[in-house]
Inverse folding.
């Protein structure tokens, strides 16, 4: 497979610091706009977890010229779709609309970037606190195994680590947010100098440049953006945690500290994850599901951010199976992999699959827009599509074995969620 | 200087052009529907066999059969099939719904021929070994047990059982535990022989290959599917309990999961456009009345939406939400208030918003190869005419607010609702049941997943 991407794009920066990336593609039936603000939960302080995420909600509550509910209403009436998302390192807002509605999107985004505060009030804040508490209940507290991830984060990282707490935050913190804190957060982080905007799809670049200057050029904001909290890379030692919950089957979660996004071992960890659990013939799936038949499912992932990463292996035991046996087999297979090494065909298949999956993921315009923004943020260059693929193509068995030894060692968190007694 | 205007920029929507699909009857029971797109070197293809469920068959038979087909076929075992797919970077999945059996391929064009050749082995010479069957059956049983931890799964499973009671749609596609326990490998082999092998099929594809080239590949690898699918067997008139609130107690729940709905007509129904618009106003997109009320005004929920559960033969309208336990009663009150309010019709603005949203969002639903493939596969799956989308757009263009409001009182009938609540506290449900003059019935989780519910 020798496919190479050739995206005809341009990048420039407005006087106020807003980075602009334009990718015209007249073959598409739509235009997608993605704005990335370089702020996430990694910027929060202790006792104020969930602030970045709550703020994302408030960005949909109207701005000076947009009434409450207007942001959704205008885009839905235009036939578009929209949402936002908050991570550890960034918050993004995205919408895809028919081509003739590009100006509407730029107007809406600029209004809330430049004039959010005049429209914010206590009632909106309290309403969205209730909504976020319900979101937390639905997606975490009331979901089976829903709080496993935050338990792992809290044990992988010490209290001051930027990835110690879950992005959604804790209910007791969320309830305490004040309007003054919201205003300060906006002033600190929602500045054009801390954002980048991607326009992708069917549009005229000349008109888009004029519209972006017209709507965003006059927005001012601080250029002194507070940075993320910095990591304290403490070494963890093996720790077993058992929690009893309202579930029927035991589930085991093993977590290691690993490499940051685009770090030298990041791609190797992706490939290791693939050859451990992705396909039926992957090491752990074959052993746990087909040979020993003791597991309902097994999955793994390299989860990486701007400053740090974690590697997870998760498996659900079948009824009557002791989770200790899952643990022992997983660790045994990792030892075998270290001892016997990785077969060349395993590596080439995994790389092939990761590459094709990446190509498939770029069918959607909104995914291309998002990818431009992420490369721009993490690597300082939006056009890193081919570089990203080459990270995998250039891997060798030797480099994978080094990564395996370096990270998947005996320093890990062993979280077991067990059925209530 | 701030140059942001306080005026909403106007949007001029030009067209709802749909992809041009080329149809070809390949003979021998095969129809090909294809759209050529050359932006990426990939092809997405769905092979669809109609699967009218027949009363008396054990629930879950189609699902486990679809799981087993690629556990070994032709000269390859399950691992060799996966290895081959991985080496090609191809995704091949086999699955069943209530109405159809699907084999889906997403592949780089350079590997299309090899992928279709593998599909032939899976469809024509699957191993269907007993050892694989026993392992998969055990996994599915465990999966059902795990899913029973999930409030939304429980609510949906019980709702389906009630609203489609005594019909072929009453069970989850994975099957009820009672049926899974009785399933034998012979059931699977018979199902494959009579319902899949050599049954007439359709192929829907989108990607960078010419229609004629694709037709040759299909004819070469998948010939002779002359046997018509058995016809759908109508069951006796089924009775729906729409005067009872069903409550499933789930310990330690932070939220109550609510599903409320009733049977409705299908996609071929004459007044479908009116229904779509009314549902859009009530609980369709984010700006809907229900979401504005329960989420944006009261903060009871993270989200609420309503929509249609369309099947080929029987369909339902339903809304679902998770609300904080303390506000279960208040949320149900507001839901009923909004349903009643809808009977009085919608405003000019609401009508125009819903119509705009419905019409203008259509092109975005046909953006990617996968979206187009699935949209046209849906036409086949539901037995709809090939110009269904074009006709629906035409109907929407001609729709008036008078037509919509005239139909508002019929859209959601007052004959009663099927209501399911999964949560910790029963008192708020008792209170609303008393106000509605509904019965209240406790249902055990074990009975929901086993299929032991009787009415």
């Amino acid at each position: 497979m020798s496919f190479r991407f050739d995206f005809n794009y341009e990048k420039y920066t407005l006087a106020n610091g807003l980075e602009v990336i334009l990718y015209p593609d007249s073959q598409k039936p739509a235009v997608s706009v993605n704005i990335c603000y370089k702020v996430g939960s990694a910027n929060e302080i202790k006792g104020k977890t969930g602030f970045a995420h709550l703020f994302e909600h408030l960005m949909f509550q109207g701005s000076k010229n947009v009434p409450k509910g207007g942001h959704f209403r205008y885009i839905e009436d235009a036939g578009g779709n929209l949402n936002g998302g908050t991570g550890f390192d960034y918050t993004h807002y995205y919408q895809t609309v028919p081509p003739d509605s590009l100006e509407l999107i730029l107007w809406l985004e600029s209004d809330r970037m430049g004039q959010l505060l005049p429209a914010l009030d206590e009632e909106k804040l309290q309403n969205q606190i209730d909504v976020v508490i319900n979101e937390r209940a639905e997606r975490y507290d009331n979901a089976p195994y829903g709080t496993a991830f935050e338990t792992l984060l809290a044990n992988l990282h010490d209290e001051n680590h930027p990835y110690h707490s879950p992005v959604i935050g804790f209910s007791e913190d969320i309830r305490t947010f004040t309007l003054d804190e919201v205003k300060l957060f906006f002033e600190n982080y929602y500045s054009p100098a801390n954002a980048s905007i991607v326009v992708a799809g069917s549009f005229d670049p000349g008109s888009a440049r004029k519209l972006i200057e017209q709507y965003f050029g006059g927005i001012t904001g601080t250029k002194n953006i507070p940075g993320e909290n910095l990591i304290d890379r403490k070494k963890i030692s093996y720790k077993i945690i058992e929690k009893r919950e309202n579930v029927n089957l035991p589930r085991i979660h093993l977590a290691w500290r690993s490499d940051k996004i685009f770090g030298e071992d990041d791609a190797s960890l992706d490939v290791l994850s693939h050859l451990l659990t992705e396909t039926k013939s992957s090491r752990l799936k074959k052993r746990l599901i087909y040979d020993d038949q003791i597991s309902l499912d097994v999955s793994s992932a390299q989860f990486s951010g701007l400053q740090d990463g974690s590697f997870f292996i998760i498996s659900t035991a079948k009824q009557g199976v002791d989770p200790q046996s899952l643990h022992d087999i997983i660790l045994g297979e990792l030892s075998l992999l270290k001892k016997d090494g990785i077969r060349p065909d395993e590596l080439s298949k995994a790389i092939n699959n990761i590459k094709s999956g990446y190509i498939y993921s770029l069918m959607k315009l909104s995914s291309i827009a998002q990818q431009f923004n992420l490369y721009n943020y993490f690597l300082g260059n939006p056009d890193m599509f081919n570089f990203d693929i080459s990270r995998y193509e250039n891997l060798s068995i030797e480099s994978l074995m080094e990564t395996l030894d370096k990270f998947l060692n005996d320093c890990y968190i062993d979280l077991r969620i067990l059925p209530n007694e | 200087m701030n140059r942001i205007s306080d005026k909403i920029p106007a949007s001029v929507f030009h067209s709802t052009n749909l992809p041009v699909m080329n149809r070809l009857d390949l003979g021998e029971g095969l129809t090909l529907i294809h759209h050529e797109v050359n932006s990426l070197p990939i092809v997405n293809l769905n092979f669809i066999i109609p699967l009218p469920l027949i009363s008396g068959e054990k629930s879950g038979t189609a699902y486990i059969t679809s799981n087993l087909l690629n556990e070994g076929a032709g000269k390859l075992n399950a691992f060799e099939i996966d290895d081959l797919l991985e080496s090609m970077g191809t995704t091949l999945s086999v699955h069943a719904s209530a109405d159809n059996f699907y084999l889906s391929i997403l592949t780089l064009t350079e590997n299309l021929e090899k992928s279709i050749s593998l599909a032939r082995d899976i469809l024509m010479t699957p191993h269907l070994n007993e050892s694989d069957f026993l392992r998969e059956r055990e996994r599915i049983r465990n999966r059902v047990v795990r899913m029973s931890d999930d409030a939304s799964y429980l609510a949906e499973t019980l709702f389906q059982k009630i609203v489609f009671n005594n019909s072929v749609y009453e069970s989850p596609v994975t099957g009820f535990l009672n049926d899974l326990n009785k399933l034998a490998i012979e059931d699977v082999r018979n199902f494959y022989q009579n319902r899949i092998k050599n049954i007439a099929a359709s192929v829907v594809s989108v990607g960078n290959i010419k229609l004629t080239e694709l037709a040759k590949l299909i004819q070469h690898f998948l010939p002779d599917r002359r046997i018509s699918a058995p016809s759908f067997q109508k069951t006796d008139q089924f009775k729906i309990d729409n005067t009872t609130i069903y409550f499933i107690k789930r310990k330690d729940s932070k939220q109550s999961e609510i599903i409320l709905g009733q049977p409705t007509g299908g996609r071929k129904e004459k007044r479908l456009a009116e229904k779509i618009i009314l549902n859009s106003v009530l609980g369709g997109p984010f700006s809907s009345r229900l979401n504005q009320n329960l989420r944006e005004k009261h903060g009871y929920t993270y989200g609420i939406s309503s929509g249609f559960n369309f099947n080929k033969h029987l369909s339902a309208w339903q809304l679902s939400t998770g609300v904080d336990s303390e506000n279960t009663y208040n949320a149900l009150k507001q839901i009923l208030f909004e349903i009643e309010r809808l009977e009085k019709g919608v405003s000019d603005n609401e009508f125009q918003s819903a119509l705009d949203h419905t019409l203008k969002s259509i092109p975005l639903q046909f953006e990617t190869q996968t979206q187009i493939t699935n949209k046209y596969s849906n036409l086949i799956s539901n037995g709809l005419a090939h110009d269904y989308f074009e006709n629906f757009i035409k109907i929407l263009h001609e729709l008036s607010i008078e037509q919509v409001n005239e139909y508002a009182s019929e859209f959601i009938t007052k004959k009663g609702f099927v209501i399911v609540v999964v949560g910790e506290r029963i008192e708020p449900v008792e209170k609303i049941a008393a106000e509605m003059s509904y019965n209240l019935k406790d249902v055990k989780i074990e009975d929901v997943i086993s299929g032991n519910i009787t009415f």
